[in-house]
Amino acid sequence: MHRRGTSRTTSGWAALAAAGALALTACGGGGDEKDPPQGGTGQAAPRVELPRLTGERLEVAAVWTGPEQENFTKVLKEFEKRTGAAVTFVPAQDPIVTFLGSKIAGGAPPDVALLPQVGALVSAVQNKWAQPVGPEAQAQLDKNYSAGWKALGAVEGTQYGVYYKAANKSLIWYNAKAFEAAGVKPPSTWKELVTAADTLSASGTPAVSVAGADGWTLTDWFENVYLSQAGPEKYDQLAKHRIKWTDDSVKQALTTLGELFGRKDFLAGGASGALSTEFPKSVTQTFTGGDRPAAAMVFEGDFVAVNIAQTEAKVGTDALVFPFPAVGAKAPVVSGGDVAVALKPSKGAQALLTFLASPDAAEIQARAGGFVSPNKAVDPAAYPNDIQRGIAKALIAAGDDFRFDMSDQAPAAFGGTPGAGEWKALQDFLANPSDVAGAQAKLEADAAKAYGN
């Protein structure tokens, strides 16, 4: 499924992210943590007016768990305080379209849902579940968001969603002590990454912690390699299934990825260990154990910081970050995000969308860490350390120069379903990286079925 707002160049954000993140790898502890302003819950004076909703009850569904859910709950608590409404968080399961479908069929849809895939937004609109945003939320969007982020929340020219959360999915986080012990420096090219992985593994620390139990992380690995190696034009074509997954460009990307996945000594626990590792563990095991962790590096977006916070490691000193290395001429930058959509035509649902489109909501979660907002009005000082502040500034400075996560643009059956489609095909590839042709054939068969062509 095609999402508008994705056919743009990557150069602006890529350059900014690379410069910012590389500079931050040298950050010490100074200025790493910032105390929030004193008084109340720590946020600035309200900048958006909300209606009184005394007695109204709202349900908000999202697939978030753990610290991410806890931090978002702080945002909902502030909404309750300012409106008088009572808000309940409803944990959802992937694929969220299936989860919402069962709720709606049972006559009990949540008031608002946070959708992690563009394809899910399109499905919600096609199924006539979603409500267009009201004038108050639209005013906040027009004031605080770039055209690209607004377009991603629109379907056929009608605004349905508010992109509350964004992500730069082109970052590799590393254990500073492990790198220092092995004498390794952050690589800037794929060749340098493989060489660094070899050195790290030879030193006794596996190079990479791969969250193979969560197929979505494998799609992000592929997308970064593919965008850098094949280029933006091919990326857009594959995202829309205008070229097949049996294309030679996919073969090249999988072969390149196999240079890392194919070395069992590179992976924490080998291929079998990677396939049984879920995303939170992939992070925490990289930042425990001093200079002998389970792995020296872990790949994923800025939200990794939430999981690092569950360890004794400190972002900016023990945990550092570098941009995903360039495979081709330019380093890739792949973005993602969660879009808030009203599923009921209620005053409360629209008020919550208005709040989520304001800097007031985003700054609460920004202070908690592991969160980046596409909202231009968010105060950079709200971010808790220099690394997350730099990532956020790069996102805003890039404007509309980004490529959105490819699997999130796809129909959920292909790009967003555990144990099926792209997730399963890439897990099978991780188990046997030498079978490039087999992986391509499976990906194409599943894509053709999901896209209907």
Automatic annotation (TrEMBL):
Q: PROSITE patterns in the record, alphabetically? A: PROKAR_LIPOPROTEIN (PS51257)
Which Gene3D superfamilies does the UniProt record give? Periplasmic binding protein-like II
The record's InterPro entries line, in alphabetical order, gives: Bact_solute-bd_prot1, SBP
Q: Does the keyword Transport apply?
A: yes
Record key words, sorted: Signal, Transport
| Region (Disordered), start-end ranges | 27-47
Leader peptide range in chain numbering: 1-28
Tell me its family: Belongs to the bacterial solute-binding protein 1 family.
Query: What's the protein name?
Result: Carbohydrate ABC transporter substrate-binding protein
